[in-house]
What we know:
Layout: E1 2-6, H1 26-61, H2 69-101, H3 103-121, H4 127-130, H5 133-161, H6 169-197, H7 200-213, H8 215-226, H9 233-250, E2 256-260, H10 263-269, H11 271-302, H12 307-335, H13 337-360, H14 364-382, H15 385-390, H16 398-412, H17 417-428, H18 432-451, H19 460-473
Antiparallel strand pairs: 1-2
Helix pairs in contact: 1-2, 1-3, 1-5, 1-6, 1-7, 1-8, 2-3, 2-5, 2-16, 2-17, 3-5, 3-8, 5-6, 5-16, 6-7, 6-12, 11-12, 11-13, 11-14, 11-16, 11-17, 11-18, 12-13, 12-14, 13-14, 13-18, 17-18
Amino acid sequence: xxxxxxxxxxxxxxxxxxxxxDATTKRGLYRVVSASMAGTIVEWYEFFLYATAATLVFxxxxxxxxxxxxxxxxxxxxxxxxxxxxxPLGGIIFAHFGDRYxxxxxLQVAIIIVGTSTFLMGCLPTFDHVGYLAPIxxxxxxxxxxxAVGGEWGGAVLLVAEHSPNKERGYWASWPQxxxxxxxxxxxxxxxxxxxxxxxxxxLSWGWRIGFWLSIVIxxxxxxxxxxxEDAPIFQETRKAIENSSEDAADGSDxxxxxxxxxxxxxxxxxxxVLIAMGLRFGxxxxxxxxxxxxxxxxxTWQDVDTSSILGLILIAHFCQFLIVPPLGRLSDxxxxxxxxxxxxxxAVFWGFAAFPLLSxxxxxxxxxxxxxxxxxxxxxYAGQPAVMAEMFPTRxxxxxxxFGYQVxxxxxxxxxxxxxxxLLSGFDSWVPVAVxxxxxxxxxxxAAVALRETRGVRLEDIDAxxxxxxxxAPAEESPSTVRV
Length: 485
């Protein structure tokens, strides 16, 4: 899709206030952060609920029995991966309309879709009742859920990042990131209570469904909170300028030049930014799902640790991660984005070699230390991501750039990580290949972090002005193919 702008104004960027990102009051910023976190907690509660159920439940009730437990687990993780495959599609769809019509409305749509699909998962018949129709329905709902989650993250973090003061963007934009461990914490609490209050047979028969049905209540709360906020001034004024230029073009002016937006345009004009965003995401995403998903499989299947103990330890680890993410976001404001990211990627290279010996002891304290180290290292790479990625792209295509870089990586990172790790562990009967796999993924992120240009404190208005100068005001034949980000 294209937007028309009169070339008579080609050398005049959209009129913006002196610093729209600082125009939001602290009270308004608290409201925006709350709205963003409320929905993100819902999204990740439901997404993590599925990840845990795939390990503990789905491998046993949605697929035929097999003497090798790894076969059922891999099959369940395959349906789990479908959500990651759908996420880029959701990111593209929601980003296209989000860059054109606003972040708020798309976030409201996303939360309804993910809530409905999750509730319906709790109503599905099992393999014993309908055969292979059961996993087919599960995959279909998982795909829909993945589309909604794919559109959620970019809109949620940009809603905060575009409202935030320039010098504190890392801190404020890290709060939606802190919603991830909160959502996972909530899902863990629900599953832990159910596993404590029910027998294994009851939990496997019907108890697991309660967690999925509870999503409707959480969605209602999150949707209501999101009705109380508006898009950031920088987005509203940019959209107004674009709409005015479109109206001018519609009046019949022949001297017009198309201004593109959306995923194809961001790939054409900002390929370096997209590639770096994907690289930053790669190792971080794999490490996270090694810690919170594969560790459950490793401990329950290979180390015979009981489910309640595992969930209790992960609950503690998630709570600790929630506490450290905002301070690490503030650290990125003080020392820079690159140093924090580089430190996290370097530590991630060695995590597997330290963590698996601890996990293999079966000792609760040792297991907790491994989980805390993993999520602490992950947070170094994760806390500053919204600010870093928002500062890579101009407002007119920021949703597209952020969502594409973040979500496409999930296909080859988080979606496959538990499957690859389970296959490596089963095939080699050793955790060493899994640790090597994590190290190689972390090196990819380290390279991206080193290649990243420092953007701490940058004004989003300056990014828009540079984009206008490089890609809009300049004649098409003279416009460079990329802009430095």
